[in-house]
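Task: sequence in, structure out. Protein: Putative pentatricopeptide repeat-containing protein.
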Amino acid sequence: MSTGPVPTGPPPFPYEANTRLKRLVESDCLNEARHLFDEMPHRDEVSYTTIISGYVRASDPLGALSLFSRMRSRDPALAPDDPFVLSLAFKACASDPSLLPHAAALHAFALKTLAFRSVFVATALVDAYSKVGSAALALQVFDEMPLKNVVSWTALISTLVRAGRCRDALRCFADMRAAGVQCDSHTYAVALKACADAGMLARGREVHARAAVHGLDATPFVANTLAAMYVRCGHLDLGLAVLGRMRSRDVVAWTTIIASYAQTGREGDALAAFARMRERSSGVVAPNEYTYAAVLAACAGLGSRARGAGARARGPAGFAGARRWQRPRHALRARGRLAAADAAFARRTPRTSSRGAPSSPGTLRMAAPRRPSPCSRDAALRRRRRAPTSSRSRASSARAGRSRARGRRQLHALAIATGLGGDAMVASSLIDMYVKSGSLGDAKAVFYESRRDDVVSWTAMLGGYAEHGRSEEALELFDKMRHIGLKPDRVAFIGVLAACCHAGKVELGLKYFEAMKEEYGLEPTKEHYGCVVDLLGRAGRIHEAEKVIEEMPERERDGVVWTALLRACAARGEEEVGKRAAERVIEAEPWGAGPHVAMANIYAGKGGGRGGGGEKRMREKGLRRARGGLRWR
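Result:
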C-alpha cells in the first residue's frame, strides 16, 4: 500500500516531519518511513516512538530494538526512559522467545532510570516476560510493581493462563476483585479462557454472571470467549445461544460457530454455518485464516471429504483472479498433483450468467455430481448385473477413495490459491486432514512447505507420526523441534509420550515427562499422566505406574488413568494392584462392565475364574463366558 511518491527532503519543521512519518507508518510504507526518519535533521521522542512502532507492527523486533539503542547512543538529549518508547521496546522483545536477554537488559535499564515506577512500563514488562515463556519473572515483576491497575492485573492473569496455571489464574482473578479493581472486558475474557482450559464449567458460569451484572457479556470480545468456554466444557447449545444473542457477528463469532460444530462432530452444520456467514455478511465480514482452518477441519471430519471440494469462498479481493490461480496450478503440477491442479484451475472464477456478470460472492458452492446420460446409466447397470458382489464392493471402495482424495487435494489447492497455504492454522489443519485420511506422505509435504518457526505445524506432524506408529520419526522430529528453539506445548508432549509408549522407550519417556514440568514449566494433564501410566504398565512396572497416579493432582485423577493401569494389570496378571484400580474405575463409572471383565480375566489367568462373588457380578452385568470358559465377554 502506498500514499504516492515521497517528497524529496524532510520538512523543515519537526511537527510536519512527524506527521508525514506517521502517515507512512500507518500506510505500511516502512522503507519510505525509515528513509524519511534518517534524513530528519531534528528527531524527538515522537519521531522515535512512531518509527519503532512501525517496526514492531511489521514483526521486526531486532529493527525496533536497534532504533531504541540508537536513540540512547546518538540522541542523548532525548529521554530513552520515555514510557511509550520503553513499552514499545518491551513489546518488541515479547515477539520472540530468543529475545529474553534483551528484555532482561531493558528491565535493568528501567530500574536504573526509575521508569519502572510507571505502571505502563511495568505492565509491558510483565507481558514481555510472559510471552517469552518466563512466567516466574513476570510474577516477580508484578509483585514488585508499586502501582497496579486493571491492565496489569489482566496481564498477570494472562501470564498464568499461558503457563497452564489456570486455577492460579482464577485465584488471581478473585484477588483482583477483592482489591477493589474493576474488571474490564479483557479481564473477563481471560478468566473465561482459564475456565475453558481447566474444564471448570461452574466457575465459568460464575464469571459469566459477573460479566452480565456489569453489562459486558454481550460485548464481542467476551461473548466469543464465553461461547468457546461453553463448547469446550461440552455445552454446545449454550455456546450457540450466547452467539445467537449478539446483535452483529464479527469474523471471530462466525469462526467460533464453525469451529464449535466441527469439534463436536457436526461437520455438516459447520459447512452450513460457513454458507450462512457468506450470505448474511454480504462481504462485510470476510473469512480469515482461522475461519478457513475451521472449514478444513470440518471437511476433514466428514465421511466423504469430497464435499469439501466445492467449499470455496472468494474472500479478499483478488482470490478469483486467473493469474493468482495459475500459480498454484503450476506448483501442484510440478509436484505431480495433476488432478488437484486441474481442479483448482477449473474453479478459478465464479460461474457467470449469460451477460458475464459473476454470481454472488457470498454463496458457498458444493461440488455437484455430474448427471450421467441415459446411455451411460444403462451401460453401468449392465456392468453391475454382470459383476460379482465382491467386485462391485471393491470398485465402489476404490471410487470412494479416489473421490475423497480429490476432495482433499482440491482443499489443499484452495488454500494455496487463496494465499493461506503457508498460514500456521491452515497448514496444521491440512496436515491433520491428511493424517486422519492416512495420507502421511501428503501431510509431510504440507509440513515441509510450511514455516519452520511454526510450532503448530510441528505439533500436528508429530502427532501424525505418533498416530501412525512411526515412533522413531516422531522422536526425531521432537528433538529437531527443540534444537531449533521451538517451545513444545502440551499437545506436542502428548505426541512424544505416545511415541515413547509405542516404541517401548520407558526412560526416554520419563525424561520427557520431567522436562515438561521442570524445563518448560507446563503442568501435566490427565492425558499426559495416562501416557506415563501406559508407558510404565507396558514395561511391567505396575507399582511405579500406580505411584504416578497417586502423586497426580486430585482434579486430574479420574477413571481414564485408572483404566490405563487396570489394562496393564490385566495384561500382566497383577491381581493386587488390579483390584485397587478396578475399584477406582467402578467409583468413576459404576455401570461400566470393563473393570469387571478385566478382573475376571485376571482371576481366570490365575486359575481362579470360577466361583465367588465376581462371577455373580459378571452375570448381573449381563456378561457371559467365552467359549472355553477362560474369558468373559
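The chain has a mean pLDDT of 74.
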